[in-house]
Amino acid sequence: MITFLLRRTGLAVVILVIVAILLFLMMHMIPGDPTVVALGPRSTPEMREAFRQMMGLDRPFIEQLGLFLARLAHGDLGQDVWSRRPVLTMILEVLPYTATLALASFLWAVTLGVLLGCIAVVHHGKWGDWLIGLVSIAFVAVPSFVVALYSLLVFAVWLNWLPAIGAGEPGDLAAQLRSLILPSFAIGLGWVGYVSRLIRAAMIEAMGEDYVRTLRAYGVAERRITYRYALKQALLAVLPVIAIGFGGLLTGSVFAEIVFTRPGLGKMTYDAVMSRNFPVVMGTVLVTSGLYVACMIIADAVTAVLDPRVRSTL
Amino acid sequence: MATDVASIPAPPIAGEPGIPRRMALTFVEVVSHPLGAIGVLLVALIVLTALMAPVIVPYNPTAISVKERLADPSLTHLLGTDQLGRDLLSRVIVGTRTAMTVALTSLAVALAIALPLGMIAGYGPRWLDALFILLFDSISSLPMIMLGLAVVVLLGPGVSTVILVIVLYSVPSYARLVRTQTLSLKTRDFIKAEQAMNAGTMRILFRHVLPNVVGPLLILACLDISTVITLEAGLSFLGLGVKPQIPSWGNILSDGFSVIRNSPVPVIAGGVPLILATIGFTFFGEALRDALDPRLNPERKP
After folding, report:
1. What's B21-300's CATH class?
2. By residue range, what is the domain housing residue A58?
3. Highest mean pLDDT among A123-137, A222-236, A242-256, B141-155
4. Which of A5-9, A44-48, A259-263 is predicted least confidently?
């Protein structure tokens, strides 16, 4: 078990190093002065000089790359080119906002998705199942930023029920929760469809297993079989997939944060792109890939704990 | 009482249906499913609009008319106008063409890159395979929209940047599919027979592996169209995709978002076609996959 996790973690570190190298190469592959490429034509000569020193751009290429990776290994993601603040500090400041948003979307979406999946299974083959299937695919297909825009239009502009901007004042829990509703709705909607389809498929598979046939033969009530046995097996099967998806939710927040002007990782990356603040963009991309890979390891670990068979195959 | 083998009538060999007939059969199967029928209708509507765009636009989509700013829908402007007085219906129609052009171009480029890469990974030496897989895994672990933002900050916004982002995002998953298919084909008898007859690697790859790989790959690409359309619209919405003067659904949404408190019309006009397109292509892709190759359904276990 431990060797399995170590191997997965080792692979994850290798992947992150490659991602870092790719980002570094991207900056160098583009023709022209890398400082101008990274900081834009409006940057001042002082800014470019600072960036050149920070990245060690006047040294040989391999040394630059080594320097860059060594700094990353120490947790130094560089500095904001405008404010000169360490990028890592800036990310840690906004991460709680994005994490809260992702968690809220995750919780309501998985709850509703599991519920819809169960209803579909109970009505398997009837129109209720068909309707839930149709709605689920539609939820998956609709772009989350359009959902964000339309929910903003309906609930904030027309009905004026919920705030359109911000994350609520610190300390004011009610306001914070109220401003969480619309963004988490927008991000979670696609997940409702995704989870309900996964649960439905996993439960239908579980219902076909031998032990369910035995339970039926013993006269166990169908409700009890559905919710006590099939749902349990389906949840265990779906859990790792959902854990990987949580990493995706963290970045899915980009659009919701921009539409609702919420502080967070996505908003910060977007602002950095608009002001050509390359170190910040690089830092957030690395951190989000790191979180994503971490979620993948957790998913693997969960699978390995639940199903000892995979430990040898992965 | 041994039966004379020769007297048993041979089972009739079913004639392999020709390609046009098979396509017609697939089409019937797709449409017979309600999901597929809705999908085909929406896809047909979108594709026709995109093809006919220059003929059916009522106005020049970029003509500015300050007097008619943010006009409500009326008989002269069926969907109203935006904050510069540009006719929204015309912008939506030309936006359909932009969306389809970007989606199809980038998917074609991605397929053209992924096919050889995947075949080399599957058929070539093992170390090369391992290297490719590691590279694909690394790119896949970059969140798509973050990858897009990183590319945009370096290359600047524009159609070619959007296409590059989509290609970067889709090549790993396509190449992986090609690789898996190639690996399983490699052990099949007809390939072994070719190898035994000393056929060149190129001949085996292009004459025998390629035709067997293309089908599943096209289904995957079809399922991907709505993601690709969403990505283009999303980047354009952020002001990082198609240039603002070119009509695209994302740009209409972006303009509409800035005036959402004055008029809801632009946001609705830009979002509805996008929703119809993503739903249409997803329904169509799902129905096509179920008709052609249900094994590709990730919800089914092998």
Report:
1. mainly alpha
2. 2-73
3. A123-137
4. A44-48
Residues of chain B contacting A270 with CB distance shorter than 8 Å: 149, 238
* Helix A173-207 / helix A87-122 crossing angle, nearest 10 deg: 50
Residue type, B245: Q
What is the domain partition of chain B in residue ranges? Answer: 21-300
Sign of CA dihedral A157, A159, A164, A170: positive
User: Tell me: the pLDDT tens digits for B55-105?
Assistant: 887 777 777 777 777 777 777 777 777 777 688 888 888 899 999 999 999
Q: How far is Cα A143 from Cα A146, in angstroms, rounded to an integer?
A: 6
Q: Considering only the beta carbons, identify the residue of B145, B153, B275 that sits closest to A278.
A: B153
Q: DSSP letters of B8-70?
A: SPPPPPPPPPPHHHHHHHHHHHHHHSHHHHHHHHHHHHHHHHHHHHHHH-SS-TT---GGGTT
- How many structural domains are present in chain A? 2
CATH code of the domain covering residue A239:
1.10.3720.10
**What is the Cβ-side half-sphere exposure of residue A294, based on CA atoms within 13 angstroms?**
9
Residue A82 lies in a domain: no
A251 chain-B contacts, CB cut-off 8 A: 143-146
Q: What is the mean pLDDT of residues A255-271?
A: 87
Q: Contact A18/B300, CB-based, under 8 Å? A: no
What torsion do the CA atoms of B151, B157, B160, B165 make, to the nearest 10 degrees?
30
Residues with Cβ within 8 Å of B69's Cβ and at least 6 positions away in sequence, in order, are B81, B82, B83, B84, B85
Looking at the fold, whether A101 and A204 belong to one and the same domain comes out as yes
Which residues are CB-contacts of A69 (< 8 A; sequence separation ≥ 6)? Answer: A17, A20, A21
